Amino acid sequence: MAATAQEPSATERTGHSGWTVLEYDTQGRVVGTRRGSVSEGAVEDALPDAAAPAPDARPAHEKAVESAELLVADPPAEAEAILGRLGFSLLERITLDALAVEMLRVRTPDDLTLPEAMRRLREAMPDALIDTNDLLDLSRGAGRGAGRDAGRVQIAQTRQDYARDAVGWGQVPESCGKGLVLGQIDGKVDAKHPALIDRDLVYESLIKADRRETAEDHGTAIAIMLIGKPRPGRSGGLLPGAKLYAANIFEYWKGRRKGNLAALIRAIDWLVGNGVQVANLAIEGGDNVLMRMATHAASAKGLIMVAAAGNHGPEARPAWPAAAAESLAVTAIDRGLELYPFANAGPYIDFAAPGVDVLTETPTGLRQQSGTSMATPFITAMVALHLDAGFPADPDKIRASMKRYAHDLGEEGRDSRFGWGLVRLRPNCR
């Protein structure tokens, strides 16, 4: 795709020159470099739209959901009267200004099962989108805590922090990413962590008022991976000069870490409303008409979503929002370029990145964490490079470009385990 007035070159926009493409041999060893830019993403080479998986066939009552709740998008003007007549009660009216959607959170009648209530409400509001308020998991896997090994992990940081070398990112100056606006939807972020204390970070909690925030170790680690301050002995973030809008949707629910779909949609709306260009999503949920609505609306507003592929194993059903056609789904590999054994698989997987025993900074010290969510920041940062180089906010065109820089893993070409493979780019920051 040639640079146009709408798609200026990186030099015209920022003085940067895109990125450096790493060239490697059949054993995966780097043997050279070349410059990459917006011109490499030719329109004619764009991938076709990713086919969205068929809707989840499980009945609604088999999913993990907020009990006795339904969500209604684009309700009719007489919605409250209809709810009252049918015995439903309005819990919350949510105005999603950025997505241009009105959404209601309603309580179902005590004498109806959730599927019965949904069927009745759909009959009464045939033009509205109605589905359950699904519970969502944090897309994290097993990891190693700091604990008694904290000192040894800290001393051996340089040796153990293989992930940046694997993608060819290397060390970057503190200004790298300046002018870019990133987002994340994850757990709680400790904005007072030394790696974040003077970063351009805006944090918002979108959980229910009567519940407690959670997942601070994960949300903080991802924020630092994206924009953390480089310090002696610490690599810092992939794009430490960028601005980050971080939303927490995870709370304690019956002793477990859970998010819900209503909070996720509010978080997406918040990111779009703040001009976020690319969002890092560490969420695992199921198919849902409201989930599809939100991802489609966000993409139409110019938000590129990079989502963890899921950690329930290769036989698990597709994890959403990663499975949305508009999302870039990321799986995790280890230092030997082997697939994380708990990673989901399926035709929706786009790319692989390091996500096993990744060295992270948390509020309680250094930890090695694993899961597909640990891999997503690398692809998020690479998408940001494309946007900075003038690519349009079109997931298919960005996929088409990034597959050019992917080291094929598994079966030849795209496969259901590794996608197009491990992407390797080096930013040209100064």
Architecture overview:
Residues 1-21 are annotated as: Disordered. The structure is a single chain. By secondary structure, this protein is of the alpha/beta class. It has 2 domains: 10-52 and 138-427, 3-Layer(aba) Sandwich (Rossmann fold); 62-134, Alpha-Beta Plaits (2-Layer Sandwich). The chain is 23% helix and 26% strand. It contains 11 helices and 21 strands. The chain has helices at 10-14, 79-86, 114-124, 150-155, 157-160, 163-167, 216-227, 261-273, 289-300, 372-388, 395-402; strands at residues 19-24, 30-36, 65-73, 89-96, 101-107, 129-138, 181-186, 201-205, 243-248, 251-253, 256-260, 278-281, 283-284, 304-308, 327-333, 349-354, 358-362, 365-369, 406-407, 422-423, 425-427. Strands 3, 4, 5, 6, 10, 11 and 13 form a 7-stranded antiparallel β-sheet that branches. A 7-stranded parallel β-sheet has the order 8-9-7-12-14-15-16, sandwiched between helices. Strands 2-1-21 form a 3-stranded antiparallel β-sheet, with no helix packed on it. Helix 8 (261-273) runs parallel beside helix 9 (289-300). The protein is globular. The chain starts with 9 loop residues before the first helix and ends with a strand.
